[in-house]
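[job 0417] fold request received: Endoribonuclease L-PSP/chorismate mutase-like domain-containing protein
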Amino acid sequence: MIEEKLDELGIKLPNPPIPAGSYVPAIRTGNLLFISGQIPMEDGKVIFTGKVSDENLETAQKSARMCAINILTQIKRELGDLNKVSKIVRLSGFVNSVPEFSQQPKVINPASDLFFEIFGEKGKHSRIAVGVSCLPLNSMTEIDAVVEFLE
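[job 0417] inference complete; emitting C-alpha coordinates
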Protein backbone atom coordinates (compact mmCIF):
# COMPACT_ATOMS: atom_id res chain seq x y z
CA MET A 1 0.00 0.00 0.00
CA ILE A 2 2.72 2.51 0.95
CA GLU A 3 4.93 1.31 -1.92
CA GLU A 4 2.03 1.96 -4.33
CA LYS A 5 1.68 5.47 -2.91
CA LEU A 6 5.39 6.07 -3.49
CA ASP A 7 5.00 4.87 -7.09
CA GLU A 8 2.05 7.25 -7.59
CA LEU A 9 4.22 10.11 -6.34
CA GLY A 10 7.12 9.07 -8.60
CA ILE A 11 9.39 8.37 -5.64
CA LYS A 12 12.00 5.64 -5.93
CA LEU A 13 13.78 5.08 -2.65
CA PRO A 14 17.55 5.30 -3.04
CA ASN A 15 20.09 3.11 -1.30
CA PRO A 16 20.31 4.16 2.36
CA PRO A 17 22.97 6.82 2.93
CA ILE A 18 25.96 5.69 4.94
CA PRO A 19 26.53 7.60 8.22
CA ALA A 20 29.02 10.45 7.96
CA GLY A 21 30.24 9.90 11.54
CA SER A 22 30.45 7.52 14.49
CA TYR A 23 26.77 6.62 14.87
CA VAL A 24 24.17 4.21 13.52
CA PRO A 25 21.41 5.30 11.13
CA ALA A 26 18.60 4.00 13.35
CA ILE A 27 17.94 2.65 16.83
CA ARG A 28 14.91 0.65 17.95
CA THR A 29 13.59 0.76 21.48
CA GLY A 30 10.25 -0.83 22.23
CA ASN A 31 8.00 0.07 19.34
CA LEU A 32 9.85 3.31 18.54
CA LEU A 33 12.41 3.80 15.81
CA PHE A 34 14.76 6.77 16.11
CA ILE A 35 16.19 7.77 12.74
CA SER A 36 19.47 9.70 12.88
CA GLY A 37 19.64 13.02 11.07
CA GLN A 38 19.43 12.63 7.32
CA ILE A 39 20.97 15.13 4.96
CA PRO A 40 20.13 15.60 1.25
CA MET A 41 22.47 12.87 0.09
CA GLU A 42 22.15 10.74 -3.04
CA ASP A 43 24.66 8.16 -4.26
CA GLY A 44 27.15 9.24 -1.60
CA LYS A 45 27.02 12.92 -2.59
CA VAL A 46 25.35 15.87 -0.85
CA ILE A 47 23.02 17.36 -3.45
CA PHE A 48 21.97 20.62 -1.76
CA THR A 49 24.67 22.62 0.01
CA GLY A 50 25.19 26.10 1.38
CA LYS A 51 23.36 28.68 3.42
CA VAL A 52 19.60 29.12 3.15
CA SER A 53 18.22 32.61 2.58
CA ASP A 54 15.06 34.16 1.14
CA GLU A 55 16.65 33.92 -2.32
CA ASN A 56 17.01 30.11 -2.34
CA LEU A 57 13.97 29.06 -0.27
CA GLU A 58 12.62 26.76 -3.03
CA THR A 59 15.96 24.96 -3.33
CA ALA A 60 16.05 24.51 0.45
CA GLN A 61 12.54 23.01 0.32
CA LYS A 62 13.78 20.46 -2.24
CA SER A 63 16.63 19.71 0.15
CA ALA A 64 14.18 19.05 3.01
CA ARG A 65 12.07 16.78 0.81
CA MET A 66 15.19 14.78 -0.08
CA CYS A 67 15.96 14.43 3.64
CA ALA A 68 12.45 13.01 4.12
CA ILE A 69 13.00 10.49 1.32
CA ASN A 70 16.24 9.41 3.01
CA ILE A 71 14.31 8.99 6.28
CA LEU A 72 11.88 6.70 4.43
CA THR A 73 14.85 4.75 3.09
CA GLN A 74 16.24 4.27 6.61
CA ILE A 75 12.81 3.22 7.93
CA LYS A 76 12.49 0.62 5.17
CA ARG A 77 16.04 -0.62 5.77
CA GLU A 78 15.32 -1.07 9.46
CA LEU A 79 11.74 -2.42 9.36
CA GLY A 80 11.78 -4.11 5.96
CA ASP A 81 8.33 -2.77 5.14
CA LEU A 82 7.00 0.80 5.31
CA ASN A 83 3.52 -0.60 6.03
CA LYS A 84 4.75 -1.41 9.56
CA VAL A 85 4.78 2.33 10.36
CA SER A 86 1.91 3.11 12.73
CA LYS A 87 2.82 6.78 13.34
CA ILE A 88 5.36 9.40 12.37
CA VAL A 89 5.78 10.82 15.87
CA ARG A 90 8.21 13.70 15.45
CA LEU A 91 10.49 15.42 12.99
CA SER A 92 13.34 17.71 13.96
CA GLY A 93 14.39 19.95 11.10
CA PHE A 94 17.63 21.90 11.00
CA VAL A 95 18.23 24.60 8.39
CA ASN A 96 21.72 25.92 7.57
CA SER A 97 20.56 29.56 7.56
CA VAL A 98 22.03 32.98 7.13
CA PRO A 99 21.49 34.91 10.41
CA GLU A 100 18.61 37.07 9.14
CA PHE A 101 16.59 34.13 7.69
CA SER A 102 13.49 33.27 9.74
CA GLN A 103 11.42 31.00 7.49
CA GLN A 104 12.74 27.66 8.75
CA PRO A 105 9.20 26.21 9.07
CA LYS A 106 8.60 26.91 5.36
CA VAL A 107 11.81 25.08 4.51
CA ILE A 108 10.83 21.95 6.46
CA ASN A 109 7.15 21.93 5.36
CA PRO A 110 7.76 19.81 2.22
CA ALA A 111 9.19 17.04 4.41
CA SER A 112 6.16 17.16 6.69
CA ASP A 113 3.82 17.34 3.71
CA LEU A 114 5.42 14.25 2.18
CA PHE A 115 4.80 12.21 5.33
CA PHE A 116 1.18 13.42 5.42
CA GLU A 117 0.76 12.49 1.75
CA ILE A 118 2.27 9.03 2.09
CA PHE A 119 0.91 7.95 5.48
CA GLY A 120 -2.27 10.02 5.81
CA GLU A 121 -3.33 10.39 9.46
CA LYS A 122 -0.37 8.25 10.52
CA GLY A 123 1.92 10.87 8.97
CA LYS A 124 0.76 13.73 11.19
CA HIS A 125 3.57 14.51 13.63
CA SER A 126 5.00 17.02 16.05
CA ARG A 127 7.95 19.01 14.77
CA ILE A 128 10.62 21.59 15.34
CA ALA A 129 12.28 23.66 12.62
CA VAL A 130 15.31 25.66 13.66
CA GLY A 131 18.05 27.66 12.01
CA VAL A 132 21.65 26.69 12.64
CA SER A 133 24.96 28.23 11.65
CA CYS A 134 26.38 25.09 10.03
CA LEU A 135 25.44 21.50 9.16
CA PRO A 136 27.54 18.42 8.33
CA LEU A 137 29.14 18.49 4.88
CA ASN A 138 27.68 22.00 4.40
CA SER A 139 24.24 20.52 3.68
CA MET A 140 21.30 22.92 3.49
CA THR A 141 19.08 20.82 5.73
CA GLU A 142 19.14 17.90 8.13
CA ILE A 143 16.08 16.12 9.51
CA ASP A 144 15.74 13.33 12.05
CA ALA A 145 12.63 11.38 12.97
CA VAL A 146 10.93 9.34 15.65
CA VAL A 147 8.64 6.67 14.21
CA GLU A 148 6.25 4.28 15.92
CA PHE A 149 5.90 0.86 14.31
CA LEU A 150 4.05 -2.42 14.61
CA GLU A 151 5.86 -5.74 14.56
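[job 0417] notes: The longest strand covers residues 85-96. Residues 21 and 48 are 19 Å apart (CA to CA).
[job 0417] exit 0
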